[in-house]
Amino acid sequence: MSQTLQAIFDNAMDAICLHRNGLHTLVNPAYLRLFGYDSPDELIGTSIIDTVAPDQRPLVLDRITRRARGEAVEAEYVTRGLRRDGSAFDMEVHGSSYALGGRTYTMAILRDVTARREEAVRVRESEERMRTLFDSSPDPAWIIEDNRFIECNDAAVSILGYPSKDVLLFIHPSQLSPPVQPDGESSFSKAERMMAQAREKGIHRFEWVHTRLDGSEFLAEVTLSAIVLQGRPVIYCAWRDITERKLAEAEMQLAASVFHTTQEGILITDSTGVIVSVNPAFTEITGYTAEEAIGQTPRLLKSNHHDDAFYTGMWRQIINEGGWQGELWNRRKNGEAFLEWLTITAIPGADGRFSRFVSVFTDVTELRRKDEQIRYQAYHDALTGLPNRALLDDRLEHAIDVARRQANQVAVLFLDLDRFKVVNDSLGHQEGDKLLQTTAQRIQDSVRRSDTVGRLGGDEFIVILGDFTDTAEVAQVADKIIAAIAAPFDISGRLLHSGTSIGIAVFPQDGDDGPTLMKNADIAMYQAKAAGRSTFRFFDPSMNLRAQQRLEMEASLRRALEDGEFVLYYQPKVHVPTGRLCGAEALIRWRQPGGELISPIDFIPIAEETGLIVPIGYWVLEQACRDVRSWRDAGLPDIPVAVNLSVRQFRDESLVRRIEEILLRHGISGDAIEVELTESAVMEDPQKAIVTLQRLRGLGLRVSVDDFGTGYSSLAYLKRFPISAIKIDRSFIADLGIDPEDAAIIQTIIALARILRLDVVAEGVETDGQLAFLSELGCDVVQGYHYSRPLPADEYVGWLRRRGEWKDGAA
Questions:
Q1: Which of 55, 170, 483, 693 is 20 to 30 Å from 44 by CA-CA measure?
Q2: Cβ(771)–Cβ(786) under 8 Å?
Q3: CB-based burial of residue 479 (10 Å sphere; 0-12 exposed, 13-18 middle, 19+ buried)?
């Protein structure tokens, strides 16, 4: 084979092979790819029949045999191929015989036609379904091309009273109508105009007077839909005799066969309005699955675009007339409103009363795309582009509906600009408008994209917040907005200053509906103005006080961390049998600039909530190690100091690394520090906790579980945790000697610790009786006011001196 032929052979897109006596002699790369082989060697010498599906082999073998005998055999045919992996596919084969070197070979060119055949079947089935639907439709249906009827169904022939459709084809629609329509326009010109509108809009509905063969006339609703049929643009035309509407709606029951395939959404309710069935198109249009919709009512889709009077009138017509048809705004699952053309039909039961209501609807939102600008202007503020009152009311009611279902909260922030009138009056409305536009943008930049910002008019704005867990988060947003608007505005080269007062009302406590929340937020806004402007107020004064206190506490905590206002106190741990000090626990206190000492009970919960507990926790570790280093340099015995790790700090991926860095920084070994964690901290993710605790133990640290007995520890995990000790919670110690249940619990904890070979520490020991009881039960280490309250570092050293635990200069 020449190089040119070889290149053509190797690079051919079609699979090519030569075979002789039914055996492969030569194959190209495309042939290998087609059948899933890696090398020609895998095929050369093998039977050509091996590449044919088993059920096709007799037919192919017969062709090969007849061709070998010299009989005329059809050169091109389609059969089923068999790949190396066992998968079958449709292939087109073109075979021809050649004489080479005195031998006869057959060259086969093969092509995978699976997709082509499947597509042909799909198109044929689609056209057959279309034809079936067209022919079986109970409504008159027509196909219009070049403004002439080219096809119609039997229903069209029947309604017009003609013996056959032959005389109805290839005529203008006006030829089946009176010369003039009721509005005075000629049937010909109006038909031309209606068909033009259908091509422009995609779908067009109108009323039309038709003429039967006997000369009688009837009024019909006509729907023209622009479609493509066999590659040609045509118009699908459907009529509905309005005078026979009830009959036509009753005939809808005959369309049950198309329930699952129609592109129109179908929703069926029982006599009480509860949804009993929906079709796939319903899910496609609304986003709600059948499981989510069944058992609900159609109010699931309510958009709040229509008032109660609209629905009252609609249902009055359904009950009185058996049905209703028209346009309706509904809402998808994702919150998006959509316009539908809806037909509701009341189905009577055996007793004559309505037993079912069938709703069939089509999403016509796209057909209204050209009206979007008009709708936008109707629902948005022309100056700022923000939602106006109408859209705000809709968004607020929707947010309330969602919050009510999910037991969540919704906040309405009512903003009024401070000193805007001065700017507007002194610089003019044009500059005032620029200020409003910039303000609108700053407000939007201060909230999440999921929140709604709108303008009521003038200098009043509304913010709707959802998805928050605490009103303090709302207060943070209000503070952020106030700060954003307080920044200078550069308006036409002038630096202007403004501000805003914000009133806040929260659903459900401040109002159960939109109007009430708006009213109460407005009231709170005036309270904010009265309080000095550029601030916010909650409608509920107690809520306002709590939120402000929390924000102030958070700000103070951040300042305290930066300014070094935290101090450590140390409470000794005593070994009861010897009376000697065996450790101490570092406890944080907050000494404010005025000298007031704040208990951790008052600030630790807020630190936990805001995440400040993590940097505070690392400060405690750093300071405790600094004190230990100082004491050891001064000769203090090697007594370990315990520090508490919060749940948030224990989750920190860098915890072990940072502790190691702190130990190295102060030159102390891990056995100088003990970490205490609550049961909840280690049980949040036991598997991860085991890994973290093992790494901490690897640094030499002791680990104890604090407040033991108050949580829900699993014994299966407890025995796997690499811990050193457990601390009995003070709540069990308080009534020791009084409450026998506390004594039994303590005895059980001590026994459990012995089995697991863990030390036991009792905290909160205050009396001789408690100490004696614990000693009798075998608890060797205690901590509490019986020995000492928590002490500042210098007083702790003094306490050690007084007890003879440490003397200056001791080695």
A1: 55
A2: yes
A3: middle
